[in-house]
Amino acid sequence: MVAGLPPIGCLPLLVTVNSILPSQHWFQRVCNVQQNKDSQDYNMKLQSHIHSLNHNLKDAKVGYFDNYTPILDMAQNPHKYGFKETLKGCCGTGLLEIGPGCNKLDITCVDASKYLFWDAVHPTQSGYCFLAHNARQTVLPYVTT
């Protein structure tokens, strides 16, 4: 299984960077439409390559996992998933911290299940659970047939 790119323009890190760059959304925490379009373009090319692999490697089954659509839906419809925050992470300020930048010395939100992102790029356990559910419905039937 090969995962596509998420909506890069909705990752808290890039929302933060984009909010401080002079633009029509200066100082606003919103998803960057062009960066999301770039992710979609990349994913289309990736799917084409996967199709080619499946065609040329007869004994192989390579599946594509679309994580773009469910993450964008979670970001745009947070209440549908029980989220209260989708453009900031739970760890630290939620704006820039990534991976090791989130450790036991950092403050965290009170309830991570209400956040789509744990840090500025990685989903919370709740976010990953929704992605796993989506994968079971869309990828596993394809790969197991």
Task: Tell me what the structure shows.
The structure is a single chain. The chain has 145 residues and is mostly helical. It contains 6 helices and 4 strands; from the N terminus they run βααβααββαα. The chain has helices spanning 12-20, 33-56, 68-76, 78-81, 125-138, 140-144, and strands at residues 2-3, 64-65, 85-89, 115-117. It has a two-stranded parallel ribbon. Strands 3-4 form a two-stranded parallel sheet.
Summarize this entry quickly.
The chain has 145 residues and is mainly alpha-helical. The chain is 45% helix and 8% strand.
Number of helices: 6
Low-confidence stretches: none
Order of helices and strands: EHHEHHEEHH
Give the tally of β-strands: 4
What number is the mean pLDDT? Answer: 88
What structural category arises from helix and sheet content?
mainly alpha
First-to-last CA distance: 14 Å
Q: Which range best describes the helical content: under 10%, 10-25%, 25-40%, 40-55%, 55-70% or over 70%? A: 40-55%
Strand content: 5-15%
Main sheet record: 2 strands, parallel
Strand order of the largest sheet: 1-2
Shape: globular
**Which value, in Å, is the CA radius of gyration?**
17 Å
